[in-house]
Amino acid sequence: MIKEVLGKKLGMTQVYREDGRVAPVTVLRVGPCSVLQVKKPETDGYTSLQLGFEDRKAKNVTRALLGHIAKAAAGGKAADEAAKPEEGKKAKKDFSKVVAKRFIHEVGWDGKDELAPGQDVKIDVLDGLAYVDIIGWTKGRGFAGVVKRHGFRGGPRTHGQSDRERTAGAIGRAHSISKGVLPGKRMAGHYGTERVTVRNLEVVKIDKDQNLLFVQGAVPGATDDYVIVRRNPKPKRVRLVVDKKDKKGAKKK
Q1: Which of 54, 55, 66, 51 is nearest to 104 (CA)?
Q2: Number of domains composing the chain
Q3: DSSP assignment of 171-222, as one string?
Q4: What's the chain's average pLDDT?
Q5: Is residue 178 assigned to a domain?
Q6: What is this structure's pTM?
């Protein structure tokens, strides 16, 4: 069983459920993903799959990566056999026909399925799931101050500091035994591009013809950002609503 599959965030919209309710959803394009490498305990010490998503021009990829992808395209054979030069010439290997991938990531796999390099993993692996976990990377906002990064309210705009209301203020420990700045002090710095996992997103719809996955709720990242869709076999916790009863045991009207 493949535990994760690669995809891309296309945007947000709303769809109607079967009962007529409107559901705000995020549309993801999931797969098809190419199997680039199959790792097993006999050869690598553990079990996993290396998947590649979305085609890319070979001229924009290093030759080392092209050789690795060519090996997968040849069904696991050596890269020398996958891209042989012309006979009688000492030329470089021709990787022009190799289809490179933009997003390459290693995913979990139990090792029970019969998979080989060069095969495709489609959205069918998510069939029957009611909830999934989405792993993405938040939008990058560059260098940000404490008001934007941590939500500080800033200082007053009076008493001679009308031009410094968004500053962090004092950061040191002048009246402590060990002077200096506390480790982990919330200050200005790089904001965004952090890996975030959103759990228990409900699967509203799956379009196998166009490889689209509709999940209810928001997904981290901007439009066209890559995501990882992880299987979530555990059902979402549902709050149990119990009717209130009076002291005699009869239900209140």
Answers
A1: 51
A2: 1
A3: -B-TTSSS-SBPTT---SEE----EEEEEEEEEEEEETTTTEEEEES--SS-
A4: 82
A5: yes
A6: 0.76
